[in-house]
Specification:
By secondary structure, the protein is of the alpha/beta class. It is 16% helix and 39% strand. Strands 1-4-7-10-13-16 form a six-stranded parallel beta sheet, with no helix packed on it. Strands 2-5-8-11-14-17 form a six-stranded parallel beta sheet, with no helix packed on it. A six-stranded parallel beta sheet has the order 3-6-9-12-15-18, with no helix packed on it. The longest helix is centred in the first third of the chain and has 10 residues, at 24-33. 26% of the residues are buried.
């Protein structure tokens, strides 16, 4: 399977596979069966929150939160023309377009050279290419969802 993938993809994808061979199953074997479950085309504009399962490719504009089904492996590919104005939550994310809002990625985040993210970014594994722009705080977490701990004092 790796030899076939190597011929199909070059550059960053192969480097990622070499660095994280245990994640190849999630990113490629699952994708071989169902590469993208949902496609939002370049001429499409969505206003409202989006909840999805599996793979999602966005080449259009989403104004609202984009959330992968909790507990399920989910991934988003945001194309160069794609734009999200809202919070993003998923397992894996490849960004080539623009995100305006906080980003929570529980596994792998790849930020391509033309990508723009304005907002706080929480991730487990990060690959950021030269030319990419992030305006906000980058935070590595074992769990990408920030946990709030409240202290209660007794009187």
């Amino acid at each position: 399977a790796f030899a076939q993938v190597r011929r199909l993809f070059a550059g960053p994808v192969i480097n990622w596979i070499a660095a994280y061979p245990d994640r190849m199953t999630f990113m490629f074997e699952r994708n071989a069966k169902n590469p993208i479950d949902t496609l939002i085309g370049a001429s499409t504009r969505i206003e409202g929150d989006l909840l999805f399962c599996g793979g999602l490719r966005i080449d259009g504009h989403v104004r609202g939160n984009v959330t992968g089904e909790p507990g399920e492996p989910t991934y988003i590919v945001l194309g160069e023309a794609g734009r999200i104005d809202g919070e993003v939550r998923c397992s894996s994310l490849v960004v080539s377009g623009e995100i305006n809002g906080p980003v929570y990625v529980s596994e792998m985040l790849e930020i391509q050279p033309k990508a723009r993210i304005v907002g706080e970014v929480y991730y487990k594994v990060l690959e950021m290419h030269s030319g990419a722009l992030v305006q906000g705080k980058l935070s590595r977490h074992d769990s990408a969802d920030p946990v709030l701990h409240l202290a209660v004092s007794e009187m």
